[in-house]
Amino acid sequence: MNNKTILIGVIASIASIALPILGVWGGQYLIEQRTSGVVWKSITALLLIGASAVGILIAVPRLPIVNESIRNLFFHVPMWFSMIMVLLVSVWYSIRYLREPSERLDVLAHESAKTGIVLGLLGLATGSVWAKFTWGAWWTPDPRLNGAAVAMLIYGAYLVLRGSFRDEQQRARVSAIYNIFAFAAAIPLLFVLPRLSGPSLHPGQTGNPGFNQYDLDNTMRQVFYPAVIGWILFAFWLTQVSSRFAFLKLKHDEN
Amino acid sequence: MRPETNLLTVPLLREISTLLAKDFRLEWRQRAALGGLLLYVGSTVFVCFLSFSLRGGTPPPPAWNALLWVILLFAAINAVAKGFMQESAGQRLYYYTLVRPQAIILAKMLYNALLLTVVALLGLFLYTVFLGNPIQSPGLFVGNLLLGALGFATTLTLVSGIAAKAGGNGATLMAVLGFPIMVPMLLLLVKVSKNALDGLDWSVSQSSVLTLVALNMIVGATSYLLFPFLWRG
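The joint structure predicted for all components is written out below.
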């Protein structure tokens, strides 16, 4: 190991802690924003449309088996990133709820979790279609796929739990507890397990070409990173709209 | 003479030991519940034995392994489910005035861990008697089984508390809430247990076992932190 690889490792590990914190902080700010937020919403729209259009049109490296389906990198992977980010925001709202309970924080945690579920289902769908064309099956018992299924089951259980309460405060508190507990107990493992378990067909695993091998001339990175930022901002936008709707419904019910 | 100092002078530990003693006494007075649990394990194993004897004898090792963990998982859900649910709201309020909530969750976890250890060891014994014993490294297998009992207990204790709060059909809700959280743990357990069945070297299972230990600690610590909030309502 020379100095350069050590430096890159240090920078990467600092970034892997700093970026989620920044994302959660910024996400809360954007979701709870009172103004219309024209600037960031137009940036989001531009990034999403631009990354999708360019992602379909640019020349990509020709690799065996994946061929043109490599373009799924611009859609599938950003969806997972934004799902994790918005779920982190949801957990953070649940923690804040337990510290100082308020109906508002409960609604925000619930709506963030729902956005996470939508993005997770989109990620499963894009992954499944991709797998049908490259692996020949809609679903395989791969560690990554199992992890995705577990994440969806957890948040399905979260919704079932919310549905089984009559008392609103009780519902808010207990579902916040389950949200934090499930996230702490299962989500970190979904990143650890694929590295522990044996061979996998998923790109980036055991000899299958991953991001670094795909990307010989850095062109894919120039589309991939804007797509990730665009999808994460889109997740916050979606949460903002749905939580505003939930607040309006609450207000309407009160009167 | 100096006053005798032992661990029980620490208030938290004293409360935990009192609660543990209370749980054991309650269990012993209602022996039907304990007997029912053991009978549940026994009859499930017997049903498996009868089904496999149709094809003449014991199942192949992968099926043996999978079936053992399914039996233990369902036994664990049944064993832990009654923990918080058999207590009435008045009883909970009474405990709340006497001890701190951390003592309650730690005592419950310890109690469930001991109960599940007994269930797991008994289950393994009956299972090997009826369905044969293909285990090649028994030490690793039993160690992994004990880790599994501990992991089930730590995870399911808080889940049973949550399900008890929701009321209604507790056991179903507990399965719905508990299974997704336990899947990653189960994957690791089944993998290590397969390694032990095949008699693979310890170095193969080392990272999985360490992850299991770390997972148990994470789950225990989060339960310890979250339970006071659950209790407050």
